[in-house]
Amino acid sequence: MAGFADQVKAWERKTERKMDLTVRRIAFRMFSKIVLKTPVDAGRARSNWQASIGSAATGVVDTVDQSGTATIAQIEVIVANMKAGDTIYLANNLPYIRKLEEGGYMAGPKVVNGHSSQAPNGMVALTIQEFQSIVSAIGIELSIQ
User: Fold this and answer.
1) Contact partners, residue 76, CB within 8 Å, separation at least 6
2) Helix 4-37 / helix 131-143 crossing angle, nearest 10 deg
3) 29-38, 99-108, 122-131: lowest mean pLDDT where?
4) Are 135 and 26 in contact (CB under 8 A)?
5) Alpha carbon distances (Å) from 71 to 24, 105, 140
6) For residue 114, what pLDDT is reported?
7) Which one of 30, 31, 73, 96 has the fewest beta carbons within 10 angstroms of its own beta carbon?
8) Which residues contact 106 (CB under 8 A, 6 or more apart)?
9) pLDDT averaged over the chain?
10) Please, what's the b/e burial string for 108-121 (b: 16 or more CB within 10 A of its CB; e: otherwise)?
């Protein structure tokens, strides 16, 4: 029979795994929502969301991913390597991303002030408002596993 110290160690390992899984799921769900809320003209804004651990990504991505599927898959790879306590970033370094977040819209390669019918309330700000419901849903998912 395992001693008390062994039981505590086992509980500690299980708790660490559960915490890691929880933060991974929260980050992935939030980041995925941001990507999918990003307006699509040519797909460049959506494909430039970059996840990284420890420091924010720099530079822009040259590929175009209108559906967001490839971008989300790349984010999933990064998120899968994070642990509770890590600092994870989601960056989009396109010069017009702030305008899109603030309600600008794309007219060809140019961003025009105004309202984006695809993201009138932004992508990041709107997803942050959903944080508590995302955490609650993930908590329920993990409690039934």
Assistant:
1) 28
2) 140
3) 99-108
4) yes
5) 16, 21, 27
6) 46
7) 73
8) 39, 41, 42, 45, 96, 100, 112, 116
9) 87
10) eeebeeeebeebee
Q: Are 88 and 52 in contact (CB under 8 A)?
A: yes
What's 6-56 look like in SS3? Answer: HHHHHHHHHHHHHHHHHHHHHHHHHHHHHHHHCCCCCCHHHHCCEEEECCC
Tell me the pTM.
0.83
CA distances in angstroms from 90 to 28, 135, 142, listed in the order given: 10, 18, 24
Residues in the chain: 145
Q: d(Cα 26, Cα 28) in Å, to the nearest integer?
A: 6
Closest CA to 142 of 8, 20, 46: 20
| Integer Cα distance of 45 and 108 in angstroms | 12
